[in-house]
Amino acid sequence: MKFITKILLLLVFLSSFGVSYADNDTVVYPIDPATLYSGSLTVQINPTPIHVNDTIMIIVTATNTGTADWGQLKIYMPVPKGTQFVSFVVPDRNLQNYDPDTGIWNVVQMKHFDRGQQKTAILTVKVLPSAAGKKLRATASFNTLILEGYGINMAGQASNARADVQTVLIKGDGPGDGPGDGPGDGPGDGPGDGPGDGPGDGPGDGPGTTDNANNGNTNSQDPLIHSNGDSKVISELNNYTNSQPSPLTSQSGGGGGGGKKVYDVSLPSISKNDFYSYLIAVLLIIGMIVAGYYYGIKKED
Prior knowledge:
2 domains, Immunoglobulin-like, four-stranded antiparallel sheet, 301 residues, OmcB-like_DUF11, transmembrane, Conserved repeat domain protein, transmembrane helix, membrane, alpha+beta
């Protein structure tokens, strides 16, 4: 009898931790299974800022921090408007189940401990020109999330990811590369070369020739000096060498009295070969003089 009493007491005690069923066969748990759920879902666009024709990644991460496993897990992460699907990958996982048309990532299951506690998916898309100047919105939410062992879908109660919104720029938009090259090259080349060559045909200092002095005619009768101011001597010197600059360097004031013009004429410079020729000629003359001198002395002796 005592044994039967103990069995009955044990059954009553165990029944207090079990589940009960209502008349409509609804399972009634002693505690709320929703308290077993805890998790997070995040979404991020990388890199930023975004430009037209850029290829960007939309990174979605789900984490189970509760005390129950998640089954039949599906996450909605659609291809954003204004972009084109390129690829989808779940790093370090065998199951790569994503439909770009529906935007459903079929995760299947997530444990609440160890390696299965977190999973990350990378959706790669290309930004289309039609998205220029618009907001690109990346979102992620739980489509189905069943608490295994309880059969409760927590998708409606679980918090969805906070959307990542970026403005699509056109190439060249946004801040520049910094300040320019700075001020210019400074002031110009400075003042000119200075004053000119001086005054022209002012009066001379001394008496000129008396030819035509009485009638004030300043034209020279010298056949080498013409009235137009050109010098025949200068012309001859110019014909002597074409490599030298003009021998007529300047005109100074005219001579007094007769009014005849006086010219400063610079002769062409002597080349090195001509200099040696003149030197040899001078040495020969000196040699002849010395030889004649000794010859005369010898003759007198």
